[in-house]
Amino acid sequence: MNSGGITSVRGILCGHFTDTRRPTGCTVVLAPDGAVAGVDVRGAAPGTRETELLSPLNSVERVHAVLLAGGSAFGLDAAAGVMRWLEERGIGVQVGAVRVPIVPAAILFDLMMGDASIRPDALSGHAACAAASAAPVAEGSVGAGAGAAVGKLFGLARGMKGGIGSAAITLHGVTVAALVAVNATGDVIDPADGRIVAGARSADGRTMIGAAQAIAAGEWPDALQIGASTTLGVVATDAVLTKVEANRLAQVAHDGLARSIVPVHTPVDGDTVFALATGASGITLDLTVLSILAAEVTARAVLRAVRSAQAVGGAGVPALPCARDFAATAP
How many domains are contained in the chain? Predict the structure, then answer.
């Protein structure tokens, strides 16, 4: 079941900020009571903040939010607004007289979608927190998915609109959910039948060609810019996990990306997945079972992201159709 997506996890809130001036924005996943966290970075061009502290070798056990943002490296500024919002509410690690919120963050590249001088900042991060709730998560062309695109192996102009999506499964009293902002170089594939949902298009733009198949047939990819893509995810559960187990959950969630994005983890993507465990269920579930669910909800969230996306174009924004425009013609 999907229910509210990532907000189905007890102890998790989620909010978006979407900039109306161009397609960009940010998304925050809040854990006001704290969550044990892990991370796994697989793409070769990541842009991140506070990921090293999530290593099991390091001291901090719990985080209070995770931020996903557009705007490339500039978008990391939005994390300062998340910290300020949390500090205003007395949330953070007590350090003497000060509470310091712990907010890991990661960014995706959307600077070619209109005016590149417009990108998420501290005010954007603060606004995303103010919008956060336990309501079902808005999906598609919002928040960190506002400027996302997929199928860019032959250039952005031959790609399609990406977005942000969420999915959840509840089993034996425990919920596992994922939130994924899909801005991939590769195509999005439905693992159930292998059909392309959104991806690289033919030179005339009328059909999806299957990037991997086209390359295997001899078509050469465009000159790809390092860091010009990146898929970001947060997997969350209300099961009780250790920090080591949270890191393992982040690792296996990448299997869900590999099932649904082809190619994935490329030199020009900074694919990053965080894991959060609130422990609010009070239940310890077998890590193998949790891993299976994490990969499954991640793949489902990827599909929901592109199926909910809206076409864009105009005012310096490339004309990119969405999955719904090709629903009946996918190869």
Answer: 1
